Amino acid sequence: MCELYSKQDTLALRRKHIGPSCKIFFAADPIKIVRAQRQYMFDEKGEQYLDCINNVAHVGHCHPEVVKAAMKQMELLNTNSRFLHDNIVEYAKRLCATLPEKLSVCYFTNSGSEANDLALRLARQFRGHQDVITLDHAYHGHLTSLIEISPYKFRKGKDLKKEFVHVAPIPDTYRGKYREDHADPTSAYADEVKKIIEEAHKNGRKIAAFIAESMQSCGGQVIPPTGYFQKVAEYVRAAGGVFIADEVQVGFGRVGKHFWSFQMHGEDFVPDIVTMGKPMGNGHPVACVVTTKEIAEAFCSSGMEYFNTYGGNPVSSAVALAVLDVIENEDLQGNATRVGGYLTELLKKQKAKHTLIGDVRGVGLFIGIDLVKDHQRRTPATAEAQHVIYKMKEKRVLLSADGPHRNGLCAEKQSPLSKRLKT
Ligand SMILES: Cc1ncc(COP(=O)(O)O)c(C=O)c1O
Hints:
Keywords: Lyase, Mitochondrion, Pyridoxal phosphate. Belongs to the class-III pyridoxal-phosphate-dependent aminotransferase family. Homotetramer. Pfam families: Aminotran_3. This is Ethanolamine-phosphate phospho-lyase. The protein is globular. The longest helix has 22 residues, at about 330-355. The two termini are about 35 Å apart. The strands form 3 sheets. Strands 4-10-9-8-7-5-6 form a 7-stranded mixed β-sheet, with helices on both faces. Helix 2 runs antiparallel to helix 10 (about 315-330). The chain is α/β, with parallel strands linked by helices. It has 12 helices and 15 strands. Helices cover about 35% and strands about 15% of the residues. The chain has 2 domains: about 5-60 and about 330-410, Alpha-Beta Complex (Aspartate Aminotransferase, domain 1), CATH 3.90.1150.10; about 65-330, Aspartate Aminotransferase, domain 2. The structure holds pyridoxal-5'-phosphate (PLP).
């Protein structure tokens, strides 16, 4: 393999020319990755790493079917969506078939951030409301509009919370305000949202949207209690707002039993807007917002057209179609259930042996391990989590520590292709 620079030179050039706020994995000893296949990545010396860190290479790195689809379409045509083309409509049709019927209108973008930004525009245009309720520790993207609704980010920086943003407590029954010993955490957490709405109304403000990941990922691998989203949706809609489900990280069958994580919350829960990205293109930048006809028509009635130079182009759509095919043909949802279940079982056995493990939670291949210094107080074991990820790296397993206290080991990023690990 022809390498342009030695690892040291690459690092030096990166330090010189790439913005210092662009963080690198394993900063104390970064890895130079030169190629990848399936669930493995390889460094410049040919060392193989098991990749549990990428949340994008959903069907496995460089899947031949995906690569082939991209090459074939690139040879033929790439242009914007102002021309009629089969790929974009075929993809929209197939995507909508995975969603509840009322979610039938797609807008294509190039990243999850763009998708969430557009979702906010749709929500605000719908009834002319402005305010957004978001969950504590949430991350929804890097655009200005999204940093504003991402406590995970704005709490770290110097950005103050904007007056049109309301932060609801994260519905975390392990570490949150109402825990598993509470009589009714579902209602208690949903009532917090209701209170926020009432308070906003008292101040003459109007709610445009509630936004949440269907399961909070970076914010600590949190699975909301059953029925929480239904109650929240009821309160938000009564206030004239819409429910935005951010599936950028947790969609496309990662949870196994369902294609979308919001479906885990029951058939009676259907968001008004769903955003998606990351796994959608398996590394190729393609993302999407899906909404109802009613919301799409309200957006159109503003008279402002939506145009995105690259969104939904024939190549991106071909890639996304190939990803859907692979998920289906290789039964990756079944795989997420089987491998995820097996991994969770093993981790629970480890929990019985190691006091450092406070909680193991997850579904399918969305799994978090909450490390604690003591079980009773659930004090986050942040330094220990760092130690573990560096030790795992020595064993050639790439993991990250995440969550508000950076004490959660996340295996949710594991590619479903890890079925080839043979359980
Ligand atoms: C839940 C969630 N939403 C949105 C985004 C933003 O996506 P992108 O980085 O593609 O802009 C991310 C990225 O990490 C995410 O995790």
